[in-house]
Backbone:
């Protein structure tokens, strides 16, 4: 990949090639753009600061770096790191009297930098924008060979948002699919202790003085931050396991032993489908393994004969599974359990998720049960039976 720098700087980079690593290596070896994400558990942990610090370092090494968008938090230390970097002016969107500022993707594409800095990956663009979400703008930049460095808080991942919403009673309106994080070539976990973060807030480094008390007594409570920090640590650990597998550092036998692949068994109308899918995809994310949402289409469920309402719910469930990072697999046949057992065997499944049946135990024994047959025939698979009480939220 070409670098937009002087010949002297290029020569210097070549001479120091043996000392480069990490993101610089990705910049050199990929045709499409590379994506690097600084992941944190809350505002103020230092994601934007770390991102801009890297931008300054890359520019000194000769890379053509521009700022595509940095959230104007009015933090002096962060603002100082923008100095010396070329900034692509944001475009104005919305009403003329109160326009919103959005990243100007067209201007960045026209400029064609080597690296672009894009803050707040989960941001939703102003109504009327060409693309709904900022991560979609980033995908387009990557497709045009532009490398992107961005930031993300863990609660904005779709698989985690409901849990955070339930536990903290704070609606998470900005969400992105989990596959966006999985698309990243590098994830850097930015972590500070909870007390250090609260001290930053007290000292006015994160919010203005009129917002400090409210922040410390509402969202930034120690118990809230503890949950968010735990979730961020789990995501970071999961990414490390994914990297080990992708880089082929394990033998084939060791990889199968270490892998904890998850299968979510979906019928055309599973019990508590959304809860079932979220449970399965969340475990897969925690253990950094492949997740499959497997639906066996029986003859009576062919598209031309299935009930339209049932088909609509089925498609919604499959779309949710895909959104949460699962690979959707459709099989066809009459013997559902046999097909699920065969799939579990060939794909080294270690965890299988089933929804609790609506049948009584007597009906299961009389007419047969896919779950009971799977339990009998499968080997070395942990079976999770997911049910949900009336007062249970996504846990």
Residues:
């Amino acid at each position: 990949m070409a670098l937009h720098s002087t010949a002297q700087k290029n020569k210097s980079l070549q001479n120091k090639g043996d000392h480069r690593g990490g993101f610089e290596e990705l910049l050199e070896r990929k045709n499409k753009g590379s994506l690097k994400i600084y992941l944190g558990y809350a505002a103020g942990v230092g994601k934007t600061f770390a991102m801009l610090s890297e931008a300054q370092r890359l520019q000194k090494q000769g890379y053509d770096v521009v700022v595509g968008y940095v959230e104007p938090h009015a933090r002096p230390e962060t603002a100082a790191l923008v100095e010396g970097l070329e900034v692509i002016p944001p475009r104005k969107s919305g009403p003329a009297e109160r326009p919103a500022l959005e990243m100007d993707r067209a201007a960045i594409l026209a400029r064609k930098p080597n690296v672009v800095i894009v803050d707040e990956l989960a941001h939703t663009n102003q109504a009327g924008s060409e693309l709904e979400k900022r991560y979609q703008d980033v995908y387009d930049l990557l497709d045009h060979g532009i490398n992107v460095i961005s930031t993300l808080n863990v609660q904005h991942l779709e698989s985690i948002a409901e849990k955070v919403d339930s536990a903290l009673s704070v609606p998470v309106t900005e969400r992105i699919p989990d596959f966006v994080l999985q698309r990243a070539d590098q994830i850097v976990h930015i972590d500070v202790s909870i007390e250090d973060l609260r001290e930053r807030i007290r000292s006015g480094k994160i919010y203005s003085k009129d917002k400090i008390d409210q922040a410390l007594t509402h969202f930034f409570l120690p118990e809230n931050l503890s949950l968010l920090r735990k979730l961020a640590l789990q995501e970071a650990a999961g990414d490390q396991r994914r990297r080990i597998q992708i880089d082929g550092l394990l033998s084939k036998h060791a990889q199968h032993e270490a892998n904890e692949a998850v299968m979510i068994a979906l019928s055309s109308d599973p019990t508590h489908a959304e809860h079932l899918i979220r449970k399965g995809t969340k475990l897969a994310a925690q253990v950094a393994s492949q997740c499959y949402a497997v639906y066996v289409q029986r003859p009576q469920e062919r598209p031309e004969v299935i009930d339209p309402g049932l088909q609509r719910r089925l498609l919604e469930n499959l779309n949710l599974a895909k959104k949460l990072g699962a690979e959707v697999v459709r099989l066809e046949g009459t013997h559902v359990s046999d097909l699920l057992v065969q799939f579990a065997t060939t794909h080294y499944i270690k965890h299988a998720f089933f929804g609790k049946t609506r049948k009584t135990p007597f009906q299961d024994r009389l007419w047969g049960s896919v779950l009971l047959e799977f339990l009998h025939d499968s080997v070395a698979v942990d079976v999770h039976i997911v049910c949900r009480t009336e007062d249970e939220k996504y846990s």
